[in-house]
C-alpha cells in the first residue's frame, strides 16, 4: 500500500544476527499488521496467527511455553510450516493471549534463529497483565503516517525529498514553498491514518476520508469495553470527546463538562493514553539533561494520535485546509501546534517510547510558554509554533535568556526558512528537520524507487 519509515527498521531487525523477538507497538489502525505482512514477503514462509480470529491458538500458550512444542502445535493448527531461519512468525492481537508475550522470552533463549514479531491493537494492556521479558525482546513504536510518508503516498516524493534535504536558514524557492504549504493543508484535513490516506488516493474525495475517520473513531469507542471497567466507560466517552476542545493549552479537569472530579477522570485519561489514542505533553523546567529529569506529571497538555481524527471528533469544517490553508494556519493555531507534536513523535527514536515536553514560566503573573522542548545532544531546543506569520516571540526570548543550555530557538510558522541571531525560523512542513538520527536513513529510504 504505502512505503513507511518503519519498513527499514523492520528489515534491519530481520537481518540482525543478534536480533530478539520483536514487539511492535502503536495504536489500532496505524498500519502495524500491514508492515509486518510486507516484511513477510522477504521470507520463504510467513505464518500469521491472529488470536482474535483464531481463538484456539490462545489455548496453545496456556500450557507449556516450550518453543518446539509451540511451533508444532501452531503449524498443525494453521496448516503451514514454521521453520527457524526460513519463517517469519507473526503473533497478532496478542492481548487475546497474554501468555504469548511471555513465550517471546523462550523463543529468544531456546530458538533464537526463528524470527518472531508480536503486535496487538491493545498490546499495552496485555503487557500490564504479564509484563515484558526484560532483555529478551526488542521493541519498535509506530505512529500514523508522517507528512513525509503522506507526500510519498500521494505521489509527491520529489517534494518530500526537497523538504528533507533543505538546509536551515536558506529560503525555499517560493513556488515550492507554496506547494508545500498546500500539501500540508491537505494533510491536516486527511491525516495520517493509513486507511484514510488510501481512501483519499483512491477517490480524491475528502468526505470519503471523513467517513473512514468516523469509522475509526467508532472502533476506538467500541474498544472501551475491552479494557475498561463498566463504571469507567462513561468517563472514557466523555474524555474522548472533550480533549480535542482543549488542545493547545494546559489540561484542567475543571474544564471537562459535568460534575466530575479528578479521581473519577484521571484513571480514564490514563486508559486513553495506554491505548495510544492520546499523547501527553509534560511540563519540564528545561534546565537539565536529560530533558525529562524534572518532569511535572501533574502539569500537561494533550494531543490526539492523529490531527484529522481530532478534527473529526470536533466536527470541524476542514474545507479551509483545501481552500485557503494560510487562513487556516492563522485562525487555527492549536491545530498547527498539535501537528508539530504529531510530527515529533513520528520522527522520534522508534526503539523507545517517545515523550513530549513543554515549558511555562512558573509565576502567576506570567503567561510565558514554549510549545515543545526537544533535546539535541547536550542542547535543549525550545520550539514555538505560530499561527500565521507569528512575529511575537516574547516567550522564546525569555526562555533563551533564562536557559544557558539553549543557544537557539526554533519557530515553526507559515513563513519561509530564515535565520537571525538566535532565532531559527522554519516552515511548518519542515518538522522532519528535527528527526532523530536513527530515523534519517529510514526517511531517505522512502525516496528510493
From TrEMBL:
List the Pfam families hit by this protein, alphabetically. AAA_14, DUF4143
Residues in DUF4143 domain copies? 222-388
Provide the AAA domain boundaries. 19-151
Protein name according to UniProt: ATP-binding protein
Which organism does this sequence originate in?
Candidatus Neptunichlamydia vexilliferae
Amino acid at each position: 500500500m504505502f512505503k513507511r519509515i518503519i519498513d527499514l527498521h523492520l528489515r534491519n531487525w530481520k537481518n540482525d544476527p543478534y536480533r530478539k523477538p520483536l514487539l511492535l507497538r502503536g495504536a489500532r489502525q496505524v498500519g502495524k499488521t500491514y508492515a509486518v505482512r510486507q516484511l513477510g514477503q522477504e521470507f520463504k514462509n510467513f505464518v500469521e496467527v491472529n488470536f482474535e480470529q483464531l481463538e484456539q491458538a490462545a489455548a496453545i500458550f496456556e500450557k507449556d511455553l516450550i518453543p518446539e512444542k509451540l511451533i508444532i502445535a501452531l503449524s498443525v493448527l494453521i496448516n503451514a510450516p514454521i521453520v527457524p531461519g526460513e519463517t517469519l512468525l507473526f503473533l497478532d492481537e496478542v492481548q487475546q493471549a497474554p501468555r504469548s508475550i511471555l513465550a517471546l522470552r523462550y523463543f529468544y533463549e531456546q530458538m533464537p534463529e526463528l524470527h518472531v514479531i508480536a503486535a496487538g491493537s491493545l498490546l499495552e494492556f496485555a503487557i500490564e497483565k504479564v509484563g515484558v521479558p526484560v532483555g529478551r525482546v526488542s521493541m519498535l513504536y509506530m505512529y500514523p503516517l508522517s507528512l513525509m510518508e503522506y507526500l510519498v503516498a500521494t505521489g509527491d516524493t520529489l517534494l518530500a525529498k526537497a523538504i528533507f534535504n533543505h538546509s536551515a536558514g536558506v529560503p525555499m524557492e517560493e513556488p515550492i514553498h507554496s506547494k508545500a504549504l498546500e500539501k500540508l493543508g491537505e494533510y491536516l484535513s486527511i491525516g495520517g491514518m493509513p486507511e484514510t490516506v488510501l481512501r483519499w488516493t483512491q477517490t480524491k474525495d475528502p468526505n470519503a476520508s471523513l467517513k473512514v475517520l468516523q469509522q475509526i473513531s467508532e472502533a476506538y469507542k467500541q474498544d472501551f469495553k475491552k479494557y475498561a471497567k463498566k463504571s469507567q466507560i462513561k468517563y472514557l466517552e466523555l474524555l474522548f470527546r472533550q480533549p480535542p476542545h482543549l488542545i493547545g493549552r494546559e489540561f484542567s479537569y475543571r474544564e471537562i463538562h459535568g460534575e466530575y472530579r479528578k479521581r473519577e477522570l484521571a484513571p480514564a485519561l490514563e486508559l486513553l493514553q495506554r491505548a495510544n489514542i492520546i499523547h501527553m505533553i509534560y511540563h519540564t523546567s528545561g534546565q537539565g539533561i536529560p530533558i525529562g529529569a524534572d518532569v511535572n506529571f501533574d502539569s500537561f497538555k494533550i494531543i490526539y494520535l492523529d490531527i484529522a481524527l481530532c478534527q473529526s471528533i470536533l466536527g470541524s469544517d476542514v474545507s479551509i485546509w483545501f481552500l485557503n490553508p494560510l487562513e487556516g494556519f492563522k485562525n487555527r493555531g492549536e491545530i498547527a501546534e498539535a501537528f508539530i507534536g504529531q510530527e515529533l513523535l513520528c520522527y522520534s527514536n522508534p526503539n523507545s517510547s517517545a515523550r513530549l515536553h513543554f515549558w511555562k514560566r512558573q509565576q502567576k503573573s506570567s503567561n510565558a510558554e514554549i510549545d515543545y522542548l526537544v533535546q539535541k545532544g547536550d542542547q535543549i531546543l525550545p520550539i514555538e509554533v505560530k499561527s500565521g506569520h507569528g512575529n511575537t516571540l516574547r516567550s522564546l526570548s525569555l526562555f533563551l535568556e533564562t536557559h544557558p543550555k539553549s543557544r537557539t530557538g526554533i519557530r515553526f510558522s507559515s513563513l519561509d526558512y530564515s535565520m537571525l541571531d538566535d532565532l531559527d525560523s522554519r516552515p511548518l512542513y519542515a518538522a522532519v528537520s528535527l528527526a532523530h538520527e536513527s530515523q534519517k536513513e529510514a526517511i531517505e529510504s522512502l525516496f528510493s524507487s
